[in-house]
Amino acid sequence: MTSPPRHHPSERAIAIRYQQLSAEVKALQRQCYALATLRLRAAVDASGTGKGLAVVSDIDETILDNTAVMAHAMTLGEHLDGFETWKMWEREGTPHLLPGASDFFHLADRLGVTIFYVSDRFEENKLATIATLSRLGLPQVHADQVLLFGPPKAERRAAVERDHRIILHLGDTLHDFHGCFAGVTLEEQHQLASDHADRFGEDWIVFPNAAHGTWMEAELRPWEAPKPR
């Protein structure tokens, strides 16, 4: 049995540098929130009210920019998913909002739409996460609307759907949108993304994250150039 491929440290640096420093990522994040705003207004207009409607959003790299801790972990030679460093960041870190996040969530709040923050942050750090979201001025940051790691995200979304109609899902990984994406191969993810193509840009808004995902361990597929004659 062969071990999975590991990406080179330089690849990690490029991914984090793009995520943290490129103007293109900031433009894409603004674009995501601009589209989410259009879909939000359309859904509320169609319903006639925001009552009974919900927006479900991931937190990290969807609302919060955590690239500082990614860079920190990389300089220490740690894996990007090092639990202890991440737990400390949840408690003591100082992330900032992605561009467009504040305006979008305050609009949802003004329209009467319920917001659920659904994240795989550690439940033990729930008070710290609530404090971070509150410090950054986000609305509806209540304990029963901040649903952290425990049951799978699909189950947490299902709990929201018992009393609300979810009009928008926001996230940076595909399992933020549907349980079918969790625990499947990269090839299956591609097929499922094709199967659900009509959802993207409608009620599923995907944010760019160059520094995290199962695809990071995949083998590249280079062009096999013809040999010189």
Structure commentary:
This protein has 229 residues and is of the alpha/beta class. The chain is built from eight helices and seven strands. The strands form two sheets. The protein has a five-stranded parallel beta sheet with strand order 5-4-1-6-7, with helices on both faces. The protein has a two-stranded antiparallel ribbon with strand order 2-3. α6 links the parallel β4 and β5. α1 runs antiparallel to α3. The longest helix has 25 residues. It is globular. It starts with 8 loop residues before the first helix and ends in a 23-residue tail after the last strand. The N terminus is likely disordered.
Poorly predicted ranges (pLDDT <50, ≥5 residues)?
Answer: 1-5
Gyration radius (Cα, Å) is 19 Å
Structural class: alpha/beta
Count of helices? Answer: 8
Total strand segments:
7
Biggest β-sheet: count, sense, barrel? 5 strands, parallel
Q: How much of the sequence is in beta strands? A: 5-15%
The largest beta-sheet arranges its strands as: 5-4-1-6-7
What secondary-structure arrangement, pairings included, does this model have?
Elements: H1 9-21, H2 23-47, E1 53-57, E2 64-65, H3 67-75, H4 83-92, E3 96-97, H5 101-110, E4 114-118, H6 126-135, E5 146-147, H7 153-161, E6 165-171, H8 186-195, E7 204-206
Parallel strand pairs: 1-4, 1-6, 4-5, 6-7
Antiparallel strand pairs: 2-3
